Amino acid sequence: MIRGRFDQVFAFEMQGDVMEPTLRHGTLCLVDRAQDRIAMQDEIYVVAVHGMIAVKRVRAKPDGSFVLMADNRAVPDDHAGKDELHVVGRVVWRADVL
């Protein structure tokens, strides 16, 4: 569900296999930039960590840090401290490529 205004929504084409099978290479995604806080565990967010953009499932830990999870089981989890993670927005819609 989009919570922000339409000018706060952007589309991107998924690159790589980190989120397969959920988001395949080439999947079109819509991101709601108004959802710039981790409000729901294990949802897919676009985040910036150490100057790099990533698409990951995010889980907040009680100590304020985060686990950044890929759906691809071959990709290990990443971790970010509470001051290292910038949430760009939450993926709210996707269209799979045929």
Instruction: Tell me the overall shape.
Output: globular
Helix-residue proportion: under 10%
CATH superfamily: Umud Fragment, subunit A
Q: Which CATH architecture is right?
A: Ribbon
| N-C termini distance | 24 Å
The H-and-E topology, N to C, reads as EEEEEEE
**Total of DSSP H or I helical runs spanning 4+ residues:** 0
Profile the largest sheet: 7 strands, antiparallel
* Unreliable sequence segments: none
Strand content: 35-45%
Task: Supply the helix-strand structural class.
Answer: mainly beta
Which terms summarize this structure?
98 residues, 7 strands, mainly beta, Umud Fragment, subunit A
Give a description of the structure.
With 98 residues, this protein is an all-beta fold. It has a single domain (6-95), classed as Umud Fragment, subunit A (Ribbon), CATH 2.10.109. Helices cover 0% and strands 45% of the residues. The chain has no helices and 7 strands. The chain has a 7-stranded antiparallel sheet with strand order 1-2-7-3-4-5-6, with no helix packed on it. A hairpin with an 8-residue loop joins strand 5 (66-69) and strand 6. The protein is globular and about 40 Å long. The model has no long low-confidence stretch (mean pLDDT 94).
